[in-house]
C-alpha cells in the first residue's frame, strides 16, 4: 500500500505557512487543523510538538498530511487533511523563532494543556514555580544577548522568546489564540506572557501593543487513536497513515478578539466570532468538561473505562445530572441549557467513540478548578447547598486518594473554605 504523501494523495504543494501552532497533538489536528482546511483558503500551519516530540516524526514523513476519521453513531468516514504544512520538534527553538518572526505569519494557536499556562491557585502566573523563575531569567537575558541566553523550558517561555524574535525583526502585530479549556484563556495567556516578560521591558511593551490575545471556546471529542484505527484509516483511504486522528462529527469553535494580521475564514467551517465569549465558555466548560471530570473520577472505581460506559451507569449518570442541574441555573437563557444537555447526552452515549476515562483524568486537579468550582461558588452565593458540586468534589478527592488541599484548590472560591472542605470530607466518610 502507498504511504501518505502530498504527491501520492494528489494534493499539490503545501499551503504557505501563516499560522504557527504550539502543542501538536490529536486535538489540534481534529480541531484547528480541520477548521483551517475546511476554511479553504491558502493558510498553512507550522506545527510544533509540546510534550511529545515524537509526534512530529510520522507527520513530517507524511508532509504534514493525516487522515481524520469522523466517527458518527452509525459509521465512519475519512478525510485527508492538508493544512499542516510542516511538523517540527517543539524543542527546536530556532525553527520556532524563525516561524513566528516571519512577517507572513499572522496567528499563533496553542494547545498546551491547562497546566501549560503555569497558573497558581489564585489563577495568575505562579511566580513560585521554578520553571517560571528560570524562564523569566532566560527572557531577561534574551533581550540583552539572544544568542547566548539560556533556553526557556516551558511552552509559554518558548512562545515569549519567539515573540521577542518577532519584535526584533519588526514583523508587526500578530494574534495569539489559546485553544485550551480555561475560562478567559485570552486574558490568561496575556497575563502569563507579560508576567514571564516582567524583566524584559521592550518585549512587554511589544506584547501590550502588538500581540492580540483572542479568547476561544473549543469543542470536539477526540479519543486517542488505536491500532485498529490505523488499519481502518488505511482501508478507508487506501494510504498507509502512521498518524491518523479519530473524532466525533460534532465540532464547535467560538472566538472573541482581533486578528490584526488577518485570519482564515473559519466561519465557513462553522466557527463563530462573538463579542462576549463568557456565556459560551461557561456552558462548554461546566456542562461538557465538568461532566467529563465527574465521569473520570467515579467511573473507574465502578469498573468503567470509557465515557459511554460510565454514562450508561445510572449511579454515575445521577451524579452528572445533579451537577448539570446546578450548572444550568447559571447559564445564559439564550444558550438553551436543556437542548445542550440533551445533545451532550447523545454525544457521551455514542458507543462507537471509545473515549477513555484515563485520558480525561490527566491533570484533574487543575481541571476541577475551571470546571466545578465556578458552579460551586455561584450556588453558594445564591444561598443553596451546592450538593451536586460537593458530591463531584468528593468523587474527585476519592479518585485522587487524598484529602483536598484546600489552600491550593479554593484560593479563588472563598476566604473561608473550611465549611466546604468539612462537607466534602463528611460526604466521603459516609460512603
Ligand atoms: C476532556 C476534553 O480530556 C479532557 O479533559 O474533558 O479534552 C474534552 O474531550 C474536550 O474539551 C472536548 O471538546
Automatic annotation (TrEMBL):
User: Catalytic activity, per the record?
Assistant: D-mannitol 1-phosphate + NAD(+) = beta-D-fructose 6-phosphate + NADH + H(+)
Q: Name one GO molecular function term.
A: mannitol-1-phosphate 5-dehydrogenase activity
Q: Which organism is it from?
A: Microbacterium faecale
Task: Pinpoint the Mannitol dehydrogenase C-terminal domain residues.
Answer: 276-397
Task: Cite the entry's keywords alphabetically.
Answer: Oxidoreductase
Q: Lineage of this protein's species?
A: Bacteria, Bacillati, Actinomycetota, Actinomycetes, Micrococcales
Q: Where is the Mannitol dehydrogenase N-terminal domain?
A: 18-267
Listed Gene3D superfamilies: N-(1-d-carboxylethyl)-l-norvaline Dehydrogenase, domain 2, NAD(P)-binding Rossmann-like Domain
Instruction: Specify the protein name.
Output: Mannitol-1-phosphate 5-dehydrogenase
> From which domain of life does this come?
Bacteria
Amino acid at each position: 500500500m502507498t504511504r501518505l504523501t502530498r504527491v501520492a494523495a494528489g494534493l499539490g504543494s503545501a499551503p504557505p505557512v501563516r499560522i504557527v501552532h504550539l502543542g501538536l497533538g490529536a486535538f489540534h489536528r481534529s480541531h484547528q487543523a480541520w477548521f483551517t482546511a475546511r476554511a479553504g483558503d491558502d493558510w498553512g500551519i507550522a506545527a510544533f510538538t509540546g510534550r511529545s516530540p515524537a509526534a512530529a516524526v510520522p507527520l513530517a514523513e507524511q508532509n504534514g498530511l493525516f487522515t481524520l476519521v469522523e466517527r458518527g453513531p452509525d459509521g465512519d468516514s475519512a478525510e485527508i487533511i492538508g493544512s499542516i504544512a510542516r511538523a517540527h520538534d517543539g524543542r527546536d527553538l530556532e525553527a520556532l523563532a524563525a516561524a513566528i518572526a516571519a512577517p507572513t505569519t499572522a496567528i499563533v494557536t496553542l494547545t498546551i494543556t491547562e497546566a501549560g499556562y503555569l497558573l497558581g491557585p489564585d489563577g495568575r502566573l505562579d511566580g513560585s514555580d521554578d520553571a517560571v523563575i528560570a524562564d523569566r531569567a532566560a527572557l531577561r537575558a534574551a533581550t540583552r544577548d539572544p544568542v547566548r541566553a539560556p533556553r526557556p523550558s516551558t511552552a509559554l517561555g518558548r512562545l515569549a522568546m519567539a515573540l521577542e524574535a518577532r519584535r526584533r525583526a519588526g514583523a508587526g502585530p500578530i494574534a495569539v489564540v489559546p485553544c485550551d479549556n480555561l475560562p478567559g484563556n485570552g486574558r490568561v495567556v496575556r497575563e502569563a506572557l507579560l508576567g514571564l516578560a516582567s524583566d524584559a521591558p521592550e518585549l512587554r511593551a511589544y506584547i501590550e501593543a502588538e500581540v492580540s490575545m483572542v479568547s476561544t471556546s473549543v469543542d470536539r471529542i477526540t479519543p486517542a487513536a488505536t491500532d485498529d484505527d490505523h488499519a481502518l484509516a488505511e482501508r478507508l483511504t487506501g494510504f498507509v497513515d502512521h498518524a491518523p486522528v479519530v473524532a466525533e462529527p460534532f465540532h464547535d469553535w467560538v472566538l472573541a478578539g482581533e486578528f490584526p494580521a488577518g485570519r482564515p475564514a473559519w466561519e465557513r467551517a462553522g466557527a463563530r466570532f462573538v463579542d462576549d465569549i463568557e456565556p459560551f465558555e461557561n456552558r462548554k466548560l461546566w456542562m461538557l468538561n465538568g461532566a467529563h471530570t465527574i465521569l473520570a473520577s467515579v467511573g473507574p472505581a465502578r469498573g468503567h473505562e470509557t465515557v459511554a460506559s460510565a454514562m450508561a451507569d445510572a449511579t454515575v449518570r445521577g451524579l452528572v445530572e445533579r451537577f448539570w442541574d446546578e450548572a444550568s441555573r447559571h447559564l445564559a437563557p439564550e444558550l438553551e441549557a436543556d437542548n445542550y444537555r440533551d445533545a451532550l447526552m447523545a454525544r457521551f452515549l455514542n458507543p462507537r467513540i471509545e473515549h477513555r476515562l484515563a485520558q480525561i483524568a490527566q491533570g484533574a486537579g487543575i481541571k476541577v478548578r475551571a470546571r466545578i468550582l465556578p458552579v460551586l461558588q455561584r450556588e453558594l452565593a445564591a444561598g443553596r447547598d451546592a450538593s451536586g458540586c460537593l458530591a463531584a468534589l468528593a468523587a474527585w478527592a476519592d479518585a485522587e486518594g487524598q484529602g483536598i488541599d484546600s489552600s491550593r484548590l479554593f484560593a479563588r472560591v472563598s476566604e473561608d473554605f473550611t465549611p466546604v472542605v468539612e462537607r466534602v470530607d463528611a460526604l466521603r466518610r459516609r460512603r
